[in-house]
Amino acid sequence: MIQLKTQLTLEEFLALPEGDIISELVDGEAVPKFKTNVMSPKFFHNSITGALFILLSAWAQGKGRVVIEWAIKLTRNQQDWVPVPDLTYISYNRLSADWLQNEACPVAPELVIEIISSGQTFREMTEKATDYLKAKVQRVWIIDTRAKTITIFYPDILPQTKRGTDRLEDSLFEGLEITPQQIFQQARICD
Is the pLDDT of residue 161 over 50? Predict the structure, then answer.
């Protein structure tokens, strides 16, 4: 007997019960964000997440929200797509300060940040960054904790890789003045 796999609708996916495993909606399937024990977040991943949350939240006061692992309702290849980036920044211009719902982010944010975990490749993250940009996310940062770099993806120019004391300046994030070195120092994973 052949069993046909049914695809989840956006509503069905969002109605799934919360559990210990974080899933993303990809091509109609609930796919675990971390596919194996090798890919579960480790110390460097979590330390960078915490450091970025602290640094970005301080800058974002009165401007918008910085959220860790918040699902976002997007489309990819003309299908509903619900990724769960490691961090998200969305301004109050895109999602008002008085919005308070316990649900997935309903609009594309300005920035998503993905930190490469063990078992993931830069190429896989680059493909995901391209999907984010096609879905109207304005910037994607891919962080490589081994190389201590941040690669910034833009919708209209080639990606730029920053390291050390390179500034992460961007007209989209006016007043944000941080460097990869500051982030890795805040996370206490620098040499």
Answer: yes
Strands (E), the chain: 23-26, 29-32, 64-68, 74-76, 79-81, 87-91, 111-115, 139-144, 149-153, 160-163
148: Cα separation from own chain's centroid: 17
Residue pLDDT, tens place only, 47-62: 999 999 999 999 999 9
> What's the 3-state SS for 46-72?
HHHHHHHHHHHHHHHCCCEEEEECCCE
Cα 19 from Cα 149, distance rounded (Å): 32
Task: Let me know the angle formed at the C-alpha of 152 by 166 and 93, rounded to the nearest 5 degrees.
Answer: 110
Q: What are φ and ψ of residue 180, in 5° steps?
A: -55, -40
CA–CA distance, 39 with 173 (Å, rounded to integer): 31
Tell me, rounded to whole angstroms, the distance of Cα 73 from its chain centroid: 13
